[in-house]
Design a protein that fits this description.
Blueprint lengths: L10 H11 L4 H8 L3 H8 L10 H8 L3 H12 L1 H8 L7 H8 L35
Length: 136
């Protein structure tokens, strides 16, 4: 498993591994997110970044915690913002969580902010058109 020095899985790598584990095609994810299939390939290869507002829907498609996926993206793409919000805690891969606790976990990141406060486990999903859509 190729990991960075801080032992977190890069967002692009996590996206590719999770998609293949669920046996989803890039076209399946692209259709659900209303983007071109090439966009998914670019995200998985780290050539492009996705818009942050697509992450909650992507998390639902990949069946992972939306908060954790957002934090992983912030850690990689906006490290100064991540440090301001979460301090020195770095995201861990699901594999590291399982090794540390002995239990498989879908959480990628710490549940507490740098000052010890619990982080809220809610994500607001919506868009400006006001159309209600049920996430898978």
């Amino acid at each position: 498993m190729n990991q960075r020095n801080d032992r977190s899985v890069p967002f692009s790598e996590f996206l590719r591994r999770r998609r293949t584990a669920l046996r989803l095609k890039q076209a399946d994810i692209a259709a659900a997110l209303h983007v071109e299939p090439e966009s998914i390939g670019n995200w998985e290869n780290g050539r492009r970044r996705m818009e942050l507002d697509k992450i909650p829907r992507l998390a639902a498609i990949l069946r992972v915690n939306a908060n954790d996926l957002c934090r992983l993206a912030l850690f990689e793409w906006h490290p100064r913002l991540y440090d301001t919000l979460f301090g020195a805690d770095r995201p861990r891969s699901p594999r590291e969580d399982a090794q540390q606790t002995g239990v498989s976990s879908r959480n990628l990141l710490p549940a507490r902010a740098a000052d010890g406060r619990l982080l809220e486990a809610r994500v607001i999903v919506g868009h400006s058109l006001g159309e209600a859509e049920q996430l898978p």
